[in-house]
Amino acid sequence: MRPLFLLNMILMVTLAAPLCEARESVKVAHGYKTVASDSRVVARARQLIGVPYRSGGSSVTGGFDCSGLLVYLFRTQAGTKLPRTTEEMIRAGGTRVGRDELKPGDAVFFNHNGRGRTSHVGLYIGNDQFIHAPSSGERIRQDSLDNSYWERSYTTARRFRG
After folding, report:
1. 89 pLDDT band (50/70/90 cuts)?
2. pLDDT of residue 36
3. Which residues pair with 139 in a beta bridge?
4. Which residues are CB-contacts of 97 (< 8 A; sequence separation ≥ 6)?
5. Burial class of residue 120, CB neighbours in 10 A (0-12, 13-18, 19+)
6. Among 20, 30, 112, 132, which one carries the catalytic annotation?
7. Which of these is catalytic: 20, 30, 112, 120?
8. Distances (CA, A) of 22 to 115, 149, 161
9. Please, which residues have CB within 8 angstroms of residue 12's CB and are 6 or more apart in sequence?
10. Active-site residue identified among 20, 30, 66, 112
11. Angle at the Cα of 146 (from 41 to 53), degrees rounded to 5?
12. Helix (H, G, I), strand (E, B), or coil: what is residue 160?
């Protein structure tokens, strides 16, 4: 009796896993972004640390600029299509998020030294840290929102999910 019970349990778990994955795929296909996809976006961003910056770049092999990085991450890890530029991302909507309400997977936006238009975006990963493609000649890296430059330059954040 016991081996049959164990076999039944293994069979149920084996059959249930693909159903859970399919349910996740349906949510993503309909534009809903879940905590699981947030985790995938953050995990993939961590893997890309060290990839070179390239103006207009949006691929692992060619490098990334700041918005190209987020477009790539959200498309490949969450099935979400984002506009290509930082200004378009802000205008496109998403939910506006206060700095004290940030969650991993939120997009954080910056201007230059606290002046001018918003021209930079990164991915918030928790604990006041974000990952971004900083500028020409540099590589994707992790920085702190508490750094004086980023603190002064921070403008807004958006949550791109249902």
Report:
1. very high
2. 85
3. 52
4. 103, 106, 157, 158, 159
5. buried
6. 132
7. 120
8. 46, 43, 18
9. none
10. 66
11. 50
12. coil
3-state secondary structure of 119: strand
- Catalytic, 30? Answer no
SS3 category, 120:
strand
pTM of the model: 0.78
Instruction: Give 7's contacts (C-beta < 8 A, 6+ positions apart).
Output: none
pLDDT in tens, 113-154: 888 999 999 999 999 999 999 999 999 999 999 999 999 999
Q: Any catalytic annotation for residue 20?
A: no
For domain 32-159, the CATH class is: alpha beta
CB atoms within 10 A of CB 63: 19
Q: What letter represents residue 99's amino acid?
A: R
Are the CB atoms for 133 and 66 separated by under 8 Å? yes
Instruction: Collect all residues with Cβ–Cβ distance below 8 Å to 127 and sequence separation of at least 6.
Output: none
CB 70 within 8 A of CB 107: yes
The dihedral through the CA atoms of 75, 105, 42, 134 has a sign that is positive
Placement of tokens 């920085």 in the chain: 143
